[in-house]
Structure formats: structure tokens, C-alpha cells
Amino acid sequence: MAERGLEPSPAAVAALPAEVRAQLAELELELSEGDITQKGYEKKRSKLLSPYIPQIQGIDSTVQKDHKNQSTPSAAPTSTPSKYHRGRSGGARDERYRSDIHTEAVQAALAKHKEQKMALPMPTKRRSTFVQSPADACTPPENFSAPPDVTTTTSSSSSSSSIRPANIDLPPSGIVKGMHKGSNRSSLMDTADGVPVNSRVSTKIQQLLNTLKRPKRPPLKEYFVDDSEEIVEVPQPDPNQPKPEGRQMTPVKGEPLGVICNWPPALESALQRWGTTQAKCPCLTALDVTGKPVYTLTYGKLWSRSLKLAYTLLNKLGTKNEPVLKSGDRVALVYPNNDPVMFMVAFYGCLLAEVIPVPIEVPLTRKDAGGQQIGFLLGSCGVTLALTSEVCLKGLPKTQNGEIVQFKGWPRLKWVVTDSKYLSKSPKDWQPHISPASIEPAYIEYKTSKEGSVMGVTVSRIAMLSHCQALSQACNYSEGETIVNVLDIKKDAGLWHGIFANVMNKMHTVSVPYSVMKTCPLSWVQRVHTHKAKVALVKCRDLHWAMMAHRDQRDVSLSSLRMLIVTDGANPWSVSSCDAFLSLFQSHGLKPESICPCATSPEAMTVAIRRPGVPGAPLPGRAILSMNGLSYGVIRVNTEDKNSALTVQDVGHVMPGGMMCIVKPDGPPHLCKTDEIGEICVSSRTGGMMYFGLAGVTKNTFEVIPTNAAGSPIGEVPFVRSGLLGFVGPGSLVFVVGKMDGLQIVSGRRHNADDIVATGLAVESIKTVYRGRIAVFSVSVFYDERIVVVAEQRPDASEEDSFQWMSRVLQAIDSIHQVGVYCLALVPANTLPKTPLGGIHISQTKQHFLEGSLHPCNILMCPHTCVTNLPKPRQKQPVVGPASVMVGNLVAGKRIAQAAGRDLGQIEENDLVRKHQFLAEVLQWRAQATPDHILFLLLNAKGTTVCTASCLQLHKRAERIAGILYDKGHLNAGDNVVLLYPPGIELIAAFYGCLYAGCIPVTVRPPHAQNLTATLPTVRMIVDVSKAACILTTQTLMRLLKSREAAAAVDVKTWPTIIDTDDLPRKRLPQLYKPPTPEMLAYLDFSVSTTGMLTGVKMSHSAVNALCRAIKLQCELYSSRQIAICLDPYCGLGFALWCLCSVYSGHQSVLIPPMELENNLFLWLSTVNQYKIRDTFCSYSVMELCTKGLGNQVEVLKARGINLSCVRTCVVVAEERPRVTLQHSFSKLFKDIGLSPRAVSTTFGSRVNVAICLQGTSGPDPTTVYVDLKSLRHDRVRLVERGAPQSLLLSESGKILPGVKVVIVNPETKGPVGDSHLGEVWVNSPHTASGYYTIYDNETLQADHFNTRLSFGDAAQTLWARTGYLGFVRRTELTAATGERHDALYVVGALDETLELRGLRYHPTDIETSVSRTHRSIAECAVFTWTNLLVVVVELCGCEQEALDLVPLVTNVVLEEHYLIVGVVVVVDPGVIPINSRGEKQRMHLRDSFLADQLDPIYVAYNM
Q1: Is 1441 left (phi over 0), alpha (psi -120 to 50) or beta?
Q2: Least confident of 199-213, 458-472, 1012-1026
Q3: What's the rounded Cα separation, in Å, for the pair 175 and 184?
Q4: Any residues with CB less than 8 A from the CB of 797 and at least 6 apart, and which?
Q5: What is the pLDDT of residues 1230-1270, one digit of tens each?
Q6: Based on the number of CB atoms within 10 Å of its own CB, is 664 exposed (0-12), middle (13-18) or buried (19 or more)?
Q7: Cα(309)–Cα(345) distance, rounded to whole angstroms?
């Protein structure tokens, strides 16, 4: 890298001898083509430059100094390629944007940035991501069998299996509810909730936060007091922005169209004249692949072959009575560019037959980029016939039986080969009908719009003729001249000059196709030399290629050229190519005045062309414009910052006979002022007449009547919009600064895509960008256009180089154009969709980007810097006092939001159970009264009963367990006992054994043998927190607890006494324990919440009794009934249904352990069918497993005879907002096997009260409402109609249980709120838990959560428990069982899960739903916040190549739907997001794993 410091500047390079410059250019070419390594390149280059280094240093000491300031070699500007060179391109767009002035400007702008160098965090990428083949990425190895309950935090198991591992409860994040802040373990650093802060991820996030602290361009006003709606910030116009000050322009006229007496009345007449009188004169010469002339078509041949074709088309394709073609029909012309002869014959044959040719590209594959739209054009033009050559037909893609494939979106076509041997000679007396040119259509030229749709510009015969005349006059064409044409002969200037004007003036065209240019870039220069051509038609690309291939060609002379027509001279970046070409070829006789840029468009045809100059006359001046002015549509000579200047050359004068004006680009066609940029409009007989078949668009484009400032039309004559942006300068010279199609309007300022491409290429792109291929387009996100830059990355570019280039491009564009880039993506080389001539197909690229099928290999999103129109953050209003709320509710006529279940006192029960206060007594009574009644059946995966328990068996077993507790455990009444059992009857027996012995049972999920490190700490923690005196378990689990593997995870020496209950002695207790009062503790219920909190609640005997009674009444449970339970039995309502209810109500419970479903998905539904179950309970994870796993198996279920019409209630047990979509999918899916849609419902419970709502058997169906998401973020409920934008469907969480009362309360003021208002759900019921069980008896928390009173409005001073959930109550039109109107409770979400961002409250599930919808490959999604950054984790179920596609999609959808900017997007393998047994995401665990860098992500993107 030593030589890098001696980098010569462009000025210094220009001072080198010509042969050294040529060798340098050759070297650059080799490097860009990949024929030489970077190292080899540097070695050869320094060798070449070494003799000149001292001189260079003299010339360019400033550059030297500049380089010393740079710290890293990679940041140093790499070699600025010599003026005449940029990597040879496969049709790349790069050469059109070469500008050394611009390159220097960009380098200067970047140098400014260097002082405040941005430390962008580099994305984290799994090494395999772009190496692995897609198949390896998602196929698990053959021998991998997933253990039934694998955890989700370790990546090793999850990445190899694409199925989500079974749900488990992970260890809590070391926080126990009830612990006060002071007692929090000091080793946990405050910042990261227990995660070591020095992890790799945290550093990157810190880096990101530091970057984001940089000021954004418009400073955001801090806060506003929120009114009813969020208002998007409208960018205020900059008071200093330049405004147009000139007078209104007047239309500019071209010179009159000369009347030449011998001009033919129609183009066909010219052909007839030359074909019959000058038959031997050459008309068109075609070249072979090497660039040698291969065939010359004479005027005689052109005339005779066109005649034959016209005759064949009209007379030989159908029968006499039913011809296939009639005059005016449209015909497709499908000829490759390297066969101009066949194309010319076909074109004139169509004109003579009076059918309308539609030239299109040769389709290469069934799904060409933009091919479908071409098909649409053919269909709308009614094309049924395609003309082509024999060679071309053979090359078209075929089906297996040899027919041409049906191209996507194309109409059915009949293919006609036009080679001479297949045509019929016309009879002597047959003559084509040639009438004078009039307004009927002559041909249709296709044009692709900015959005990618293809339209057909129809050109009339008179316009075709008049345009030829205007061109002939402007270019001063004369008979016998030779033109060298390097353009596409099928359209635009290639067609107008090389096919029309050529015949009109009996000239000779030498056609140099694109394929020849690729192999021999100098071929057109050699043709000019050989044929002494007077005119050459080229694009900047061709000038560039000729300069690159120019090796001291002493023998070529361009002195014969009087016009070098540069047809993309309208591109503002063409000026550098023209200058460079002139300086190199002036020594070969090229005259400066012969360079003639012109501006064209499909609609207006030739808009303006520079006439050949007089030798020695001064060349026209340049305009040096301020880019800042241009972005406001104003012409200002650049004075301020020379870095942001645009140098534009003129494109000559208006065409003869034409008139031009400049109108506002958007809105009505008002004339612009003289110093304003607008769309160029042309009025003459020479433009297109319409878009075929599109009357509306035609009117706005082809029939424009410009108006003056007062709005009145300036004349009768219609103008045509050209799609070019520009102005008329001094001396009526026309200047073009861009195209309408490339216009990006961001925050009211206009930027041109081409200008941005040029800036991107000026940032040392040679090391990173493959052949200079860069696409720029804008996408509409969140009420504004956002700029996206996509470039192809060189195969040998390193990650660091690419990232360095990306960050520098962002700085350069920001500096020069003062606009932020929303997304910058690099894709592998050669993967962007191509246009027929090898350029980038922009609209298709944009479509891939929006669909998520671009597959980038590097991506950088900058929403934080770009999106400046977010609504202002909300500031909470000053709290309103309770009294005014009360008065407010009364004034508004709103009732207080409260609801209650049936009153327990009024319900008559003749049941003997009522007289027992304790569940243990009920079991003893049942063992005597109905000893053989089976209470429980346990099923295995095959659906067979593995164990049953009658009342007596259960009682006996419980007695023995009580005995062993006394003997082995030496326990006293009131001691806590941990029950560690798999789901089954053993667990139930152990529970009642504890009650018989007076101990307090604590049910705990057993650890997972294959994953002790993740699951054992939870067990250990509950054992410690509950101060258990003893653990009851099975022999297998006992061995596991003491194993070596367990010792690696926890301290196994300090377990309390462990007793296995597999072999129990027959000894019974002398007497069973009876608690002195029902308020005594019955059991402890421990659970890890989704926020990672471990919470234990105390359940008294009276609460247990009340709970069982409420469930019995709600579900009408009697001893003759059977219910099926597919739930985990360790906490909450799941535990109550599994262990308590059957003993209380006497019904039979069929127990299905959820993990058995993983081995047999049909188990639950087939059990329900087999036992004809009326009531079944499951969890969301079970429902999801069935919906996803059995989605395509409904026919199999039918075949197995499974019928669910017996089901009356199918209840999902949950502690969250009902998942309406999942319930709907489930109901819809199994409707075909008899499931009633009314059957599916949900329960609602929380830590303080495990069963608040449960649908039950009687009472109205669950109701649903649509609420406005935006209002919800403001803690308000606004009901909207179905289908309203931003609406959210909520379902009632079942009916409130008997004896339960709820009230909705403002969590801050603790005052009640009105009907349909959002607040915290508070509950009062006899089965509420009696408090938290914690190590520290924190009384304040206890009182606040379990025994709290409303601050006003409750005379009875009821004691309420706070559920911690937000919800609202709404009175419905339905009638409840009591005969009153039914009050529905809607749960919105848990308070401690909500995200507070921008002063608003977000529920993670809403953001996750939006994200999951964006791409088919997102299997699951979870969000959390970290230091005010929103982090989105998505599981990718597709191949890893799609990982980076998700980043922009996720960012867009969250911005659009939730007005939030995503800070970090993490893409992980399926199954990484941890999910607990209730099917709830454990977002805090995910956050901790992410920050501790344990996720093994596929990709992490840090949005800037």
C-alpha cells in the first residue's frame, strides 16, 4: 500500500505522455474486468508511474497532504481512473456519468466529512449466509430427530431444525416480583437488566446511538400537547429557498420548414422513387460479429423485397374471402439488433401493405424483465401476427414439442418468417397503394414508463414524413452521404435517421449493432474512417468505449465527419464524454464544431439538435448551474459551493417548423418563468399522436394547451409533453437537465436519478461496484418519496470495502444533493434485471425491492436520517383530577365501566359438595360415595389410555404420598413441597397427598433432559424462592437432578430432600390433616411472565373452593360429563382444570399432555371425536400446532372419520389479548369436519386471579369490535367500521365468571373510567389469590396489587386486585343470563409488555402482526426496545439469501403502520424466539440473549 500515497490527480495524469496514459487505461480495464488482481494492478501501476513520480509530486502536493490526513488506507480515495477510462461495461450506465469535475467535487465533499468521520456500526452477518446453497440452508440433516421439548435459546439445536422446538419456560431474568429495587442483585448492571454490557451487540448499539445523536437536518420540535389525531409533520418551506424571478417565457419558434419542390408526398414514395430509379445505390450495410461488412442492401433490393412482403402479407396469409390482415391492423416486428436488413425490409413491407408495425425486442426467456408489460402492449394493440427472420425464430425458446413458448402476459401470436425464399413474388400488375401522407397511424414505438408499464406511442404517416423533413433540414442531409449508426434501429433516433431520413435522402447507412460494439468497441470509428462517413449517430457510451479501446490508432481519421450526433446529449452528464472524446480524437481530424448533441423523446421525437457549426466559429457556452437551485426548479448560476455544481451543454435549437415552451412539470400546464426549470413541450407536425388505446393519458401528454399566469390558454395549438426537464437559455439554445422519469421529489425538492448515480460512481466505485452498475429510484414510504440506491457488487469486493463505499456514498449524496438516502443495497454481480441493451431495468428492480426478491448481499437503511416528517412525540397532558373525571362522565351520560358475572349467592345448588369447605374433604367424600367413578384418563401419543384414576384409587394414592412425606420428609404442616412431575395422574395424586399431609404443594415443570442448561435454572429458582422443604418427583427425574450434566447448570449439592414416589409403602397416615380455617394456604402457583418475571401467588382453600365452583357453574360440569384437556398443568387455569375441577365437580377429565401432540398431531382432535367430548380446553400453542400442521390434512381427518360436531365449547386458556386471527383460521379450517364456528372461545386470567372470564355453555356468543389503532396508542378507544384503515379487530375474552366483578380504572389516578374507555382491568372475586409469595414480604406491592381501593366513586370501598392488563368494558345489545344487557370485557394487552415510544403506548403484538404479513418467509416475529431503539427479530423460514430482503420490508411496514423507526432488524433461524408453555413469546429473554450475543443471527442490520 506504500505506493498509494503517491496517487496522481486527474490533472497530473493528463500531464503524462500519451503512451503511458494508454497503458494506464489498459491496466484499469484489466482490473475492472477482473483479469488482474488488485495487488498485481498496484504493482504494475507503480512501475509505470515511478519515472514520473517526482514531477507528479510537484504538480500535486496538495493531494499528498490530503492523503496524509487519512487514517485508514481503505478510506483513501483510490485511483481516480484516467480521464479517458472507466471499466468497460456490459451495457453499463456508468459511462454516461463520467465527469472528472464531479469526481473531484465528490472527493472534496468527502474530505469535509472526514473530520467528523461517521462511525457507522457494520452489520453483523453470519459467514455462511451468502456461501451456502439454499438447500443446505433449510434442510435438517437426516438423522436429526427433534427431542420433544428443546429450548429456544441455544442456537445449535434451533438452527439445524426448521420446526419450532416445543415451548418451554425459560429461567426468569433474575427478577422476582415483590423484590424491591434496593435488593436487586448488585451484579446485574442497571443498563442491561442482567446482561453484561460489554458484549459485541451492545457496543454496536452504542455506536448506533452515538451516530443517531448527530443532528438531523430539520430540528424536531420537542413536544406538543396531543390533540385527537397524530398529524404528520409537513416539511415547512425553507424561507431562504431560491424562487424564480424572471418574466414569463414566450414560446420559442424554430426556423421555418423549407419547401423543397422534389420532396416526396409520403416516405413510401421516396422508397419507390429510389428503388426504381437508383436501384444499384447502397442503402444499408450490415456488419458481422467481428465488425466486417457482411451484406449491403441496395435501394432496388429494399424496394423489391418490401413489395414481396407487402403482397404476401395482404394476399397469402389467409383465404381470399378471409384475409388474416386488413389495412390498419397492428403487426409485431421481432428482429435482433444485429439484423438491420431484415428489419428494414419488414418495416417498409408493412408500410406498403398499410399495416402498422410495432417493433419490439426479441424475447430471450419466458420471463424477461419487463416482458409481461410488452405482452400487455401487444394485447392492447390487438397484435396477433409477429414477423421475424428464420434465424431469430430458431433462437426463440421452445417447448418440448418444438413450439414457441407462450411468453408471460403475451397474446397468442402467429409467427411469420419474412426471409425472401418464403415470400411470394407479386404479379406484374400488382402495385401497393401509396397515398400522400395523412394522419392515419404509420407505426407504434414502445416506451417504458417510470412505473414499468409499456405504452405504445402512435406516430402518424404525416408526422413520420414531417419529422424526416425537419431532420433532413436541420442536419443538412444530401443524397449519397454515408451515416454510421451505432443506435438501436428499432426505435428513437436510430430509426428516424438510419431507416427514415436515410431513405428520404437516398443516403447509405452503415449499422454497427450493440453485439459488435461489445467485442470491438472501436468498430464505429473504423467504419467512419473506411467509408469516409459524413455523419455518425452515437451515444456517450460509444464515445467512451472508443476512447478506452483507442491504442494510438494513427491510421484512423475522423476528418470526414461533419456531424457527430450524440443522441443522449440530453443527459446532463454527456458533456464530459464529449469533451474527453474531442481532446483525444482532435488529433485524428475530429472538428470541434462537428459534435452535435441532440435531445429526443418517444412522444415529441427530436426535440432539439445542435446544427453543425461553422469552422473556426466560437463553440456555444456551457451553463454551470447550482444543484441546490435545480432541486427547487430554479436556474441559478452556481456561485456558492463548487462541489454541488452541474455543468450542462446545450442541445442546439428548436427543430425547423417547430415551436417550444416550458411548462410546470406537475399540475396544470402553466408556462414557466425564464429562470425556472420545467417540462419541455413541443408543438409541430412531427410528434407522436397518442398512446395507443389510452385516451386519458393521451390527452394529458399529446394535447396540452399551455396557459399563462392568469390561467388563460396562450393559443389554439396543442403541444406535446416531451418528458424532458430543461430551459431555454440565451440565444434560444435549449438546455436539458434531466428526465421526468428520473425525477425523485423528496420533501418538495426535485432530485434527478442520473445525478445521484453520477455521485455514486464518483466515490471510488471501481473496487466495489461491478461495471458501474447502479440503479436509483424512489419508493413511497410514510407520506413522502424515499431514495433507494441499488448497485451490483464486484465478486471480489471485501465486506469492509463495500461497507466503506456505502457509508461514503451516503455522505457524498448528502453533501452534494442535500438529500438523505433511505436505503442503499448491494446485490451480487449480474443479478439486477437487464433491459434489452444490457442496462438496468429500473422499474423491475424497484418491483423486486418492494416484493423482497432483490436478494442483496449488503444493505444499509437510513430511516433515522431520512424520515423527518414523523408526528411530534406526544407529551402527557397534566393529570385531570378525579372529581372532574366523575363529573365529566356524568355530564357525558357515560356509565362507569364495570361488569360482573352472576351472583354466587342467588344460585341454588342442591349439591352435597357445598357442605365441604376443603377440596381434600371433597375427595374423601367421593372416595366413599362413588369409589369406582373414574375421574381421570391419561392418554399417550397413540391415543391409548395409559393410566386412569377412580375416586378411591386417587384417594388411596394420596394417602400413601402423605405417609411418605411424614416418614421420609419429616415435614410439618405448612411446609412447602415442590412437585416435579411430567403432566399426568402422578402429579394430581402428589398434589392431594400434600393437602392430606398439611403441606403446601408447588407444581413445577420438570427440566428437559436434552437441555438442562436452559431449563434447570428455572426449577432451581422456584425451589429457592418457595423455600421448599422437600421435592417430590419420579426416579428418572431424581437421577437427572443429581446428574453430572445438572451440576454444570446449578449447584446440585444444596437441593432439599428429594423423594421419589415411584414405589410407595402401603403405610397410611393415622389421620388426615384438616386446616383450621379456609383462609389457610392451599397451594402456591409459580409462573414466569413474558417479561421474564418469576411470580408466585398464594391460593387459599376458600379461593380454591370458589374457583372450582365458579368454573362448575359456568361450564355446567356434573359427574356424568366428560371434558378433554390439552394444557400444561403447572400454573394458572391450566393447573386448576387439570388437578382441581374434576375432584370438585366429579366430571371425567381426559388428559392429553401437549407434548404428545408433537408426535401425533391428530391426537387432540381424534380424542375429542372418539369420546364425543362436548367441552375441550387447549392452549394457543396447541391450536397453532393444529392449524399449521393439519392445514392441508383436512381430507385425511375426514377419511379417519373425525367429526367435531359434538363440540359445544372449545376454550383457549390464555392470559393475553385473544388471538382473533388464529381462532378464525382454526374455526374455518375445521368447519369442514363439523366444528361450529360458535364453539371456539377464549378465557382470561392473570397472576392475581387465574380465571376472570370463561365462555361457558350458556350466555350470548363472544362479540367482536374494531378499534382504531392510532387512538389505542394514545390510551383511547375509538370504535370504527370493519375495513377502516389502521383498524384492529378485538374479541371479547369469554364471559365473566360467577362471583367476579371487574372495573376499568385509570392506572395513574386509580379512578374509574367510563364505558368504552381504556384502562387497567381490576377484579374483585372470592377466588382472587391472597398475595404474592416472595422472599421479601414487600407489603407495599402486596397492598397495591391485591387489596387496593378506587380513589373515588366507590361508596362500598371494595377491595380490588390489579390484573396489570389494559382493557375496556362495553355494554352490548345482547341479553345476559340475568336478563340485563350484557357487558363485554375486551382485553388489549399487558401493561408491563407495552412499549413506550415517542410518548405513545404500543402493544408488541400489533407491530409483530404487521411485520409477519410483509413477506412469506417470516415464520415468527418479536419486538422489544433497548435504550429507546426498537429492535425487531424475525425468524426466516426461507433460504438465507432472503435474509437481507426482509430489512427494508420490516422497516417500511413499521414506519407506515405504526409511525415508528426500527433501530435494529435481527434475522434469525426458525425456533429462536423463545415461547413459553402458554404459547406466549418471551420477549425479555430474547432481548437478553440478543444483547449477550447468544442468538447466532443470520444477519443484524443497524438502521441509521
Answers
A1: alpha
A2: 199-213
A3: 8
A4: 767, 768
A5: 999 999 989 999 999 999 999 999 988 777 888 999 999 98
A6: middle
A7: 8
Radius of gyration, CA atoms only, the chain: 40
Q: Which residues does residue 1418 pair with via DSSP β-bridges, in sequence order?
A: 1436
pLDDT at 483: 97
How far apart CA 138 and CA 1442 sit, in angstroms, is 12
Contact present, 543 and 581 (Cβ < 8 Å): yes
Secondary structure of 1110-1134 in the HEC alphabet? HHHHHHCCCCCCEEEEECCCCCHHH
Q: Which of 556, 306, 580 is nearest to 431 (CA)?
A: 306
Residue 1058 has pLDDT above 50, yes or no: yes
Residue 1386: CB partners within 8 Å, gap ≥ 6? 1265, 1290, 1291, 1292, 1293, 1367, 1368, 1369, 1370
CA 433 from centroid of its chain's CA atoms: 57
H or E element in which residue 1142 lies: helix 1141-1145
Least confident range of 9-23, 40-54, 299-313, 385-399? 9-23
Provide CB contacts within 8 A for 1131, sequence distance 6+: 1003, 1085, 1086, 1087, 1250
- Cell, residue 612: 453543425
Q: Which residue has the cell 514531477?
A: 55
DSSP string, 721-735: EEEEEEEE-GGG-EE
C-alpha cell at 1487: 432481548
Helix (H, G, I), strand (E, B) or coil at 963: helix
Please state the φ and ψ torsions of residue 1164, each to the nearest 5 degrees. Answer: -60, -50
Q: How many CA atoms lie within 13 A of 1382 on its CB side?
A: 19
Is the pLDDT at 140 greater than 90? The verdict is: no
- Give CA torsion, residues 803, 804, 810, 816, to 10 deg: -160
pLDDT (tens digit, 9 = 90+) per residue, 1290-1301?
Answer: 999 989 999 999
Measure the N-to-C terminal CA separation of the chain; round to a whole number of Å. 31
The C-alpha cell at 627 is: 444543484
> Cα–Cα–Cα angle for 781, 787, 788, nearest 5°?
100
Phi-psi region of 635 (alpha: psi -120 to 50; beta: other; left: phi over 0): beta
The predicted model scores a pTM of 0.84
Q: 693 and 738 in contact (C-beta within 8 Å)? A: no
β pairing state of 1462-1468 and 1499-1502: antiparallel
Q: Are 284 and 297 in contact (CB under 8 A)?
A: yes
Amino acid at 679: E
d(CA 240, CA 233): 20
Instruction: Report whether pLDDT(553) > 70.
Output: no
Average pLDDT, the chain: 84
Q: Which residues of 601-614 are buried (b: 16+ CB within 10 A; e: fewer)?
A: bbbbbbbbbbbbbe
Q: What is the DSSP code (8-state) at residue 605?
A: E
Asked if 1263 contacts 858 with a C-beta cutoff of 8 angstroms, the reply is: no
The DSSP bridge partners found for residue 743 are: 752
Question: Cβ neighbours of residue 766 under 8 Å, at least 6 residues apart?
Answer: 28, 31, 32, 78, 79, 81, 86, 87
* Residue 224: pLDDT over 60: no
The torsion angle over the Cα atoms of residues 383, 385, 390 and 394, rounded to 10 degrees, is: 70
If you write DSSP's letter for every residue of 742-790 in order, what string do you get? Answer: GEEEETTEEEEHHHHHHHHHHTTGGGTEEEEEEEEEEEE-SSSEEEEEE
Question: What are the CA-CA distances from residue 1251 to residues 798, 1325, 1367 (Å)?
Answer: 58, 10, 16
What confidence score (pLDDT) does residue 1216 get?
A: 92
Helix (H, G, I), strand (E, B) or coil at 1279: strand
Identify the CA nearest to 252 among candidates 712, 633, 680, 720.
680
